[in-house]
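Lab meeting, item 3. Inverse folding demo.
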């Protein structure tokens, strides 16, 4: 068995409720168990922050620092790219990061350096929540796969914000900066419409590419999880459908839709059409999982997506990401639990639970007891 990417050691100081200390996970399955509110999820969160992404709990950086402390310091020793590496993260207002002794511009510089996938119960909102959750899922996952996508996304966000500012100005009856007449204003909007259509096209193409990659893996995983009894379906619901295969036709379709919405956009004071309105349809046996799926089915669907994220990362980067699984087993029947444990047995996994016995028996994993923020 060979592990290309793994956490060797994680040290903590001033992070959430975790007491100063060290976690030394082994290759393979690591079980973090303990009563409620002891710090299990906090430990996974600390690992996750080294991917460069925001907290999977949606926490602000300042909330990660222990109450009453000025800063938190986390260090991660990990094996990636066939060498031992060390990252240090200081959280004080924002995250400051050093990788192998070299200060990085931002924590996002870790994207593609240390890869992990995380499942936590809050991710069930991927099904139950609004479309922004599903867009975030695709975008976060694709950023790890293609770190350059982060730039595409921030460029998209910048253009969207600027177009919205322009729309608000026009709605308020003011003349936008750089315009002296209605004709100038329309010309300005033409420019922003084109930029916006191009940005939308790039984002949709990226999300479509991501789905193309992940769909066969996720459906196969879901087959396994459900004991071949159920079928998962996922599709992208774009504001302009049917053009995905031809980028310039897609861009034309966006431009036409954006132009058509101009009057409505000015009335609203924001962009009513664009990739910021895109959604994913997730189905089980042909019906929307959000409306008709049972709790176990919904959990399985989200898990299938998360585990395929890991498989896809391995295919593309050649490295198996670390899996962080928070309270993954509840609400799953034994077939589904067995399938997961079989599937992950040769990854490095950090898995939290209240009772470690079943997982330990099946995986022979390393067990850590978490009590009041202490790793025992
Ligand atoms: N910034 C912080 N400073 C100090 N304590 C914090 C901070 N943020 C969260 N906590 C505390 O950390 C505790 C443990 O949280 P965590 O979510 O890790 O528990 P858990 O072991 O995963 O519990 P459960 O089994 O219920 O999921 C909570 O009681 C919370 O109040
Ligand atoms: Mg928890």
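The presenter then showed the designed sequence:
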């Amino acid at each position: 068995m060979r592990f290309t990417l793994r956490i060797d050691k994680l040290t903590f100081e001033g992070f959430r409720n975790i007491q100063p200390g060290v976690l030394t996970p082994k290759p393979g399955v690591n079980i973090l168990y303990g009563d409620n509110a002891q710090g299990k999820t906090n430990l996974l969160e600390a690992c996750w922050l080294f991917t460069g992404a925001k907290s999977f709990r949606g926490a602000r950086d300042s909330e990660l620092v222990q109450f009453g402390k000025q800063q938190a310091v986390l260090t991660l020793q990990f094996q990636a790219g066939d060498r031992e590496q060390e990252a240090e993260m200081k959280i004080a207002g924002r995250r400051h990061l050093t990788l192998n002794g070299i200060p990085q511009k931002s924590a996002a510089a870790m994207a593609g350096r240390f890869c992990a996938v995380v499942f936590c119960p809050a991710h069930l909102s991927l099904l139950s929540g609004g479309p922004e959750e599903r867009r975030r899922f695709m975008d976060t996952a694709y950023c790890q796969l293609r770190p350059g996508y982060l730039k595409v996304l921030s460029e998209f966000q910048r253009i969207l914000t600027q177009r919205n500012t322009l729309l608000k100005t026009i709605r308020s009856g003011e003349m936008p900066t750089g315009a002296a007449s209605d004709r100038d204003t329309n010309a300005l909007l033409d420019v922003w419409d084109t930029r916006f259509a191009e940005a939308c096209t790039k984002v949709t193409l990226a999300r479509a590419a991501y789905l193309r990659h992940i769909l066969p893996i996720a459906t196969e995983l879901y087959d396994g999880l459900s004991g071949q009894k159920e079928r998962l379906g996922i599709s992208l619901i774009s504001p302009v459908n049917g053009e995905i295969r031809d980028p310039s036709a897609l861009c034309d379709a966006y431009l036409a839709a954006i132009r058509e919405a101009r009057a409505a956009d000015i009335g609203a004071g924001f962009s009513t059409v664009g990739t910021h309105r895109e959604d994913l349809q997730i189905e089980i046996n042909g019906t929307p999982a959000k409306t008709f799926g049972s709790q176990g089915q919904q959990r399985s669907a989200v898990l299938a997506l998360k585990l395929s994220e890991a498989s896809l990362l391995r295919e593309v980067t050649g490295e198996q990401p670390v899996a962080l699984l928070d309270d993954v087993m509840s609400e799953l029947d034994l077939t589904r639990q067995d399938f997961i444990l079989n599937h992950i047995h040769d990854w490095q996994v950090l898995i939290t639970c209240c009772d470690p016995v079943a997982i330990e028996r099946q995986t022979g994993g390393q067990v850590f007891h978490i009590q009041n923020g202490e790793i025992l």
